Amino acid sequence: MKNSLLSALVICSLSVVIYATANAAKPVDTDGDGYNNRIDCNDNNPAINPGAIELCFDGVDNNCDGLADSEDPTCGQSQCNDIDGDGYGFPADPSCSFIQEDCDDSRVQVNPGATENCGNGIDDNCDGLVDGQDPACGSGPHANNVSAN
After folding, report:
1. Which domain holds residue 57?
2. What is the dihedral of CA 55, 111, 96, 49, to 10 degrees?
3. Using an 8 Å Cβ cutoff, are 98 and 82 in contact?
4. CA 63: distance to chain centroid?
5. Shared-domain flag, residues 119 and 146
6. For labelling, which of 14, 29, 48, 110 has a CA lying 20 to 30 Å from the CA of 58?
7. Which residues contact 18 (CB under 8 A, 6 or more apart)?
8. What pLDDT score was predicted for residue 95?
């Protein structure tokens, strides 16, 4: 009786250990950027992850290398940046050749030459006006940032 009780206790303990190990916290990608919470330094923001480009002058470590802005060697010596490659940049240096400054240099579809996408809650054309405030949106369901659906 003692042996069978001891055997049952060992088997039960072993089962608990195996179950706990198999169901240990798995890595999760909360923000859907392809990097899980074990390697993503901010898993609540899809623009911040180990594969992101460091956006100089925003005060954030965008690429999770532990360095932000001027500390990060990817920012380089020149302070002229066109991170998203849309031809509009973020000039912190007066010698920059950009015609206009990009209001969001992390999104190629947002720049001074873009068409306002009414209803998305973003100032797509960098005029300082969002959707319903922007005359480019006119009137209708999208003018006040309301979905037509």
Report:
1. 28-75
2. 10
3. yes
4. 10
5. yes
6. 29
7. none
8. 58
